[in-house]
Design a protein that fits this description.
3-stranded antiparallel sheet, globular, 11-stranded mixed sheet, 16 strands, 57% helix
Length: 805
């Protein structure tokens, strides 16, 4: 019996070769019919990796064998149910329910049955029942000291939490469980990675999910885990469906063929449904896909295939509507369906309503879906995760923006300019119980490696970055994303109180419009095509960066002429159409991702205006109340920055009693302390925006970079932050209109206004310019007004992000 039990443990841990060896040894050493049958039961489990029908035949033959004990028959049902998960969930439940009913005396085998039954519920989109079974399995394992079994159940419970929309709890469960699972065997590690890839897809991180899935396909193929290999191919196809539909169709068909060879008919049909839906959604005129989809729908009646059936029906309906043909309406998904499925359905519904001229339905459905998405984003405090989750709604917003802009109603255009932004930055300050007084170990380790002159992309650095990100994704400190957006009336009243005008841009995939709200009322102004604006922006960043450099006179003059020509062309595109509606000196600009790189205060018509680049009108109004007096001010000068010491010394003269830290005191720990204790924090250091990992944009300090992730750890922040560094006003667009970067990280953490530059800056010009800005701030000017009073400088184009007035 010891050999047999050891074989079972090897099999559960994915150590298949060791399991077969011990099973063969156990069979040779016994004549006990029940023990021999049990060895065959475990053998069938191993056989199912390559041949499910043969494994089921083995178990059915054992059920027909006379003389076996009732306990052994129960184990046959338990194993049969576990194997049938891959082919027939209905029959799997029959076997697993029978086994669960008769295994109350054997808690360890009951644990395995509950784990398998939870997997069936997950496949049937029933996360509540799945979570209940996984929780019971974990409790049984913990009670009997089976740590990795408990970890495996908790890991899968994380998948149930994800399906229910509780992403933070899912991440925490999976992150806590993963190390113990990975230590058991390469096969079990790959299985955990497969589930993690699915979570990455739901979290809006398809590029990372794709990388994990390609590794899983290779690993499963190497270990001859054909069922898991097919599942990884299926998930990879689902991931690539939007970006590479041809490859997605190829992978889905390959997965379907593999499932079919393994006897997994339902899984094969699911993969075929994905291939057909992808072909239909790619807008190809493919009559074979239409015919194939219509034929396949008749076969997708099993409860195991609910999601595949709904997906294919929606794809077929959308395909016919795009072609101008009537098609029966697909029934709506229930509210109990997974959030990702409901948002995917909403995307199709909104597009269909738009195409059929049902504008009210399009906007109503889009509105409800975006509120659902914002509530989901509000369950995490991670700016990165909030921005990635926008993947599930950006096309809905694009359709709604198109409908609103086509209709021209000022209220609709303003509403969707608000709904299209502000997902990353919450409208309510961060709250939580975690302290920021102690530096997280992962960030400290990352800084230590980078300080040792390691490259930014070494395997060790990549691994540490991943640990930092996963830790912040999984923490339970929450900053609610405000769902109630402001209306035009309240916005206009707030603007009048501050003698200001709001210019809120809105774009769909092809066109840009703007809403101008001020003393003359609210107006919709068509701006032009996105392609024309992209052309006007081309080369601007390079000219801005070159202008800051110390160049010889002839080259410097040429660069400045080029920059001014680009700014003039850009101004004509994005400002001239609406300029006549702007009658105030103060202007709040709410810009989409397409305009994130614009140095607004360098545009000629705006050089005599006080500009505040706001996340949204809603966010601006939340923070634009009377600003508390600035009493405590802190300055810190990073290493190897010419004139940094001079800069902060000149600026600090405006603030008697200010804390000034330089030289050996320019550390990340002191930045964290100053952020907690000051009303205004000024950091002069080398800066770096990292487009691929924007939350790892950073300020270079004595002991390493201060990252956007460091900012996200803060629980107390200043009212105003000045980033005297290159590039840290830049941001990276993730999905649709969402952008993320260092300035956004500070705003997310509750800072009222960030003064930063969207490009490289000249050290000498910055020193003089920011000293003048501090003079204005110390005299009581709002940040945007202080920037204006200092006068625009092409070599130091600082902007006020957030509530600049």
């Amino acid at each position: 019996m010891d050999l047999y039990e050891r074989a079972v443990e090897h099999a559960r841990a994915g150590r298949n070769r060791a399991a077969r060896r011990d099973l063969d040894a156990a069979a040779r050493r016994t004549t006990d019919r029940d023990l021999l049958a049990r060895a065959k039961i475990t053998g069938a489990f191993l056989q199912a990796n390559t041949d499910v029908p043969a494994a089921i035949r083995t178990l059915d033959e054992l059920l027909a064998e006379p003389g076996l004990s009732f306990e052994t028959l129960v184990l046959i049902h338990a194993q049969r149910g576990g194997i049938l998960i891959e082919t027939d969930g209905e029959r799997a439940l029959v076997n697993l329910n029978f086994a669960a009913e008769h295994l109350s005396h054997d808690p360890l085998r009951l644990m395995a049955v509950l784990f398998n039954r939870g997997s069936v519920w997950l496949l049937r989109d029933d996360p509540r029942r799945a979570s209940t079974d996984f929780d019971r399995a974990a409790e049984l394992a913990t009670t009997h000291g089976l740590e990795w079994h408990a970890a495996n159940a908790r890991f899968n419970q994380g998948m149930a939490s994800m399906a229910a929309g509780d992403l933070v709890h899912a991440l925490r469960l999976m992150e806590d469980s993963r190390p113990l699972i990975e230590r058991q065997s390469p096969v079990l590690a790959a299985s955990a990675e497969l589930l993690r890839a699915e979570l990455l897809l739901s979290a809006g991180l398809p590029d990372e999910g794709t990388e994990v899935l390609r590794t899983c396909v290779t690993s499963f193929a190497r270990h001859r885990m054909r069922t898991d290999q097919a599942e990884a191919e299926y998930l990879l196809a689902r991931t690539l469906a939007d970006t590479d539909p041809r490859e997605a169709v190829r992978l889905a068909r390959r997965a379907a063929a593999r499932f079919r060879r393994l006897g997994g008919k339902n899984y094969a049909d699911r993969a075929d449904a994905l291939a057909l839906a992808t072909s239909l959604n790619s807008r190809r005129k493919d009559t074979a896909s239409v015919r194939g989809a219509e034929e396949l729908l008749d076969r997708l009646e099993s409860d195991d295939l609910t999601s595949a059936r709904d997906q294919l029906r929606l794809a077929l309906e959308l395909h016919h509507v795009r072609a101008g043909r009537p098609w029966p309406r697909t029934p709506d998904l229930p509210d109990s369906a997974p959030l990702v499925s409901r948002l995917a359905e909403a995307e199709v519904r909104v597009e269909i309503a738009k195409l059929t001229g049902n504008t009210d339905e399009a906007l109503d459905r889009a509105r409800a879906s975006v509120e659902l998405l914002r509530a989901w984003q509000g369950t995490t405090d991670s700016p990165e995760l909030r921005s990635s989750l926008a993947m599930h709604g950006y096309r809905i917003i694009e359709h709604a923006a198109s409908v609103a802009m086509s209709g021209g109603d000022v209220s609709d255009v303003f509403e969707w300019s608000e709904r299209s932004r502000g997902f990353v930055v919450g409208n309510v300050e961060v709250g939580g119980t975690e302290s920021d007084e102690v530096e997280p170990a992962e960030l400290e380790a990352l800084r230590g490696v980078l300080a040792g002159s390691a490259g930014h992309d070494t395997p060790e650095v990549v691994q540490l970055r991943d640990r930092v990100r996963r830790r912040q994704w999984a923490r339970e400190r929450i900053s609610r994303v405000g769902i109630d957006i402001v209306d035009i009336e309240h916005t206009q009243r707030a603007l009048e109180e501050r003698d200001a005008t709001l210019v809120a841009y809105l774009s769909d995939p092809t066109e840009v419009s703007a809403v101008v709200i001020g003393g003359s009322g609210a107006h919709v102004v068509p701006i032009g095509s996105r392609s024309a604006i992209r052309a006007a922006l081309a080369g601007l960043q390079a000219d801005l960066d070159m202008t800051s450099a110390e160049l010889r006179p002839g080259l410097s003059d040429a660069v400045r002429r080029s920059l001014r020509a680009r700014l003039s062309a850009l101004s004509k595109r994005i400002w001239s159409p609406l300029e006549s509606y702007v009658g105030t000196r103060r202007v709040a600009v709410s810009a989409p991702a397409a305009l994130a790189a614009v140095p607004w205060n360098l545009l000629a018509p705006l050089q005599d205006r006080s500009i505040s680049v706001v996340t949204s009108a809603t966010h601006w109004m939340h923070h634009a109340g009377a600003m508390d007096p600035i009493r405590k001010v802190g300055f810190i000068a990073g290493p190897n920055v010419p004139r940094a010491d001079t800069e902060i010394e000149h600026a600090a003269k405006q603030w008697p009693g200010a804390t000034v830290l330089e030289g050996p005191e320019a550390t990340t720990a002191n930045v964290r302390t100053l952020a907690r204790e000051t009303d205004l924090l000024h950091v002069a250091a080398h800066g770096r925006h990292t487009p691929g990992n924007p939350m790892f944009s950073g300020l270079e300090l004595l002991d390493g970079p201060w990252f956007g992730h460091d900012v996200a750890e803060l629980t107390m922040v200043p009212s105003v932050v000045v980033l005297s560094a290159c590039e840290l006003g830049r941001s990276t667009a993730r999905w649709g209109e969402e952008t993320i970067g260092m300035a956004r990280a500070w705003l997310h953490s509750g800072v009222r206004c960030v003064i930063a530059a969207p490009c490289t800056v000249n050290d000498a010009a910055t020193s003089d310019y920011l000293a003048a800005v501090h003079s204005g701030l110390a005299s009581g000017l709002a940040p945007s007004d202080a920037l204006l009073a200092a006068g625009p400088d092409e070599r130091a184009p600082f902007l006020a992000f957030g509530a600049g007035f």
